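Continuing the series of single-chain predictions for the mutant panel. This is the parent chain; the variants come on the following pages.
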Amino acid sequence: MKLPIKTAAALIASAAYLLLNSNLSAQNVQCNIPSNLYKPKIAKTDCQNKTNADYYLLALSWSPQFCYEMRGKGNADVQMQCKDNKFGFVVHGLWPQKINAKNKCDQPRNCNNSIIVSDNIIKQNLCMVPGVNLIQNEWQKHGSCAFSSPDNYYAATTKLWNNLKKPDLIALQNSKHNLTVGDVEQAFIKENPKLAAKNINIEMNSGRYLKEVRICYDLNLNYRECERKGTPAHLSIKIGQ
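Parent structure:
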């Protein structure tokens, strides 16, 4: 028996939500979605470059550090991520990248800014990309340069997110007298045996607190070497809580 199209779509969305939340549960995270979602805003375009991507970069933000740095700021995205929830890793974005790009305006950027992300896509992805405007902006700035629609962009992002196991960095820090960038890299490699240090970039702030872990992929969404070298493995690093 064939299901009505709307029913089938609802079941697919429900399955995607459960899959995402099972991944979140593995990080001991509970996700609370606001009952009334605000409408996303199209951000002002900083620069535009309609060039083809050579590879992708998945940027995972360490939410506790982001929330610490955003304390006292009250926009709705920060409220959702930092007040209504307590996350570990979240997705900042999936970014099409160009080899030898010198700055952000050399990268594929703002290729199509006319599409508003639908409420359904926002609800399906808000526990992974925790902000309505963040979801809109990542599609506008990055996704529109390599994917035909927000649906396709966030389907690819969800696939990478769900396939990447995230280590428990708080436990790792508690077990180490002097945690290094290399220790964080190796923690990811231990959880994901096909991953290698050359596929990972670690970003930290001036106080040596972890900000982001960035994973590089080829255009077929397989791991590939990152063009830009990240923070040296021997440097010490701290994990905010």
